[in-house]
Fold this protein.
Amino acid sequence: MTDIKTESFEAKMGQLETLVSQLESGELSLDDAMKTFEHGIKLTRECQSALDQAEQTVQVLLGEPGQEQLAPLTDSE
């Protein structure tokens, strides 16, 4: 069974790779480069959030000492 969140994360990482290639090519106009950069920042933040949630889940599952203050995960995060 494939997790939709994992697919979404993987898709976003693929999009980021494409955006980086476009920016590195130097062929975009300044306006297009700024829009591409802005989209890349948005994707980066979304991916970081997904990684933070995954890390929190692993810590809860492992029951690491000192992690009792972790808040429960919600679908809206």
In short: The chain has a mean pLDDT of 83. The helical segments are 4-25, 30-62.
